[in-house]
Amino acid sequence: MGRDSFEEHAIHGTVDFPVGIYDTHFEPAHRILFSLHYHREFELLLVTRGKVRLQLEGDTFYLNQGEGIFINSGALHSAESSEHQECGFIAIVFSPEFIAAKHENSYETYIRSVMDNELVIPRPLTDDIIAIMRETNGWFQSRSFGYELFIKSNLLHIMALCMAKARQSRRRKNDNKMDVVKNAIDYIHNNYQNAITLQDMADHTHVSREHLCRVFKEVAESSPVVYLNRYRVLQSAYLLRDTCKSISEISSQCGFNNSSYFNKLFLRFLKCTPGEYRRKHR
Questions:
Q1: Is cis: bond before 122, omega within 30 of 0?
Q2: Which of 16, 37, 58, 109 is exposed most, by the fewest CB atoms within 10 A?
Q3: CB 234 within 8 A of CB 4
């Protein structure tokens, strides 16, 4: 599973089995492993190769090979190779309701408390959890008969181990700063095909352009405009790979009104030209 598949905004797993497990590998040229995003699902991230610099709700974590971390529902996060070297990770993304149904007492006691950040799961993950994650990935890759039951059992075991070490917190998960960035990201994802400006993003989030840039830079370490351009490039990469549309048509469809500017940004973010990318991935 490559980084395009991991970054794609899609349902993880199926309605009946809402679990996505991604075993990824990145060459040294791929500095950015995945861009800033969030999702409702819980996520367990395990570094299997290299060293990862993870941005999580404005905090920075450095994860070495063999180390893992829990990413809460709705948490803004992004990752890059911290030393521009070969890198890899296993990401297990699963619905909170896969662990307990909403009508169960355990959902309110444990799952909802984690989602609301009333219970905080320690970082990094312990060695016993890491071992279960590796086993879970093995079951997912093999698809052996009964693998769904083994995976659910393992995730229940992981969450039980996490709860045993969880601590109480009075800090709410989402403050105004995070809400502003999330609203800006949602606006970009829904409108990247159109001609949108920094002022449009600020108007949508009900803050000034200066405030939007300041909090976005603090959380994402880039400006909203840089994020917009990178997102447009990533969407164009999907179309280059999966359609026969011309490069100029794809450029226009992804919000670029200048082909040379599109080529320049594509080279900056993906380290190759659109034509080279298409030839390599088709």
A1: no
A2: 16
A3: yes
CA angle at 154 for the pair 152 and 155, rounded to the nearest 5°: 65
Identify the three-state secondary structure at position 106.
helix
Please report the sign of the dihedral spanned by the C-alpha atoms of residue 214, residue 215, residue 221, residue 224. Answer: negative
Q: Give the residue from 164, 7, 139, 160 showing the smallest Cα distance to 77.
A: 7
Quick check: 129 and 160 in contact, CB under 8 A? no
pLDDT tens-digit readout, 227-253: 999 999 999 999 999 999 999 999 999
Neighbours of 251 (CB within 10 A): 25
Q: CA-to-CA distance for 80 and 27, rounded, in angstroms? A: 12
- Percentage of residues in the chain with pLDDT exceeding 70? 93
Structure-block tokens of residue 114: 């984690």
Among all chains, which residue has been given the structure tokens 């159109």? 194
pLDDT tens per residue across span 63-72: 999 999 999 9
Is residue 8's pLDDT more than 70? no
H-helix or E-strand containing 47?
strand 42-49
Whole-angstrom CA distances from 55 to 42, 69, 77, 222 are 16, 12, 5, 12
User: Whole-number mean pLDDT of the chain?
Assistant: 90
Give the residue among 11, 75, 68, 69 at the shortest CA–CA distance from 37. 75
Average pLDDT over every residue of 142-157: 97
- 34, 4 Cβ separation under 8 angstroms: no
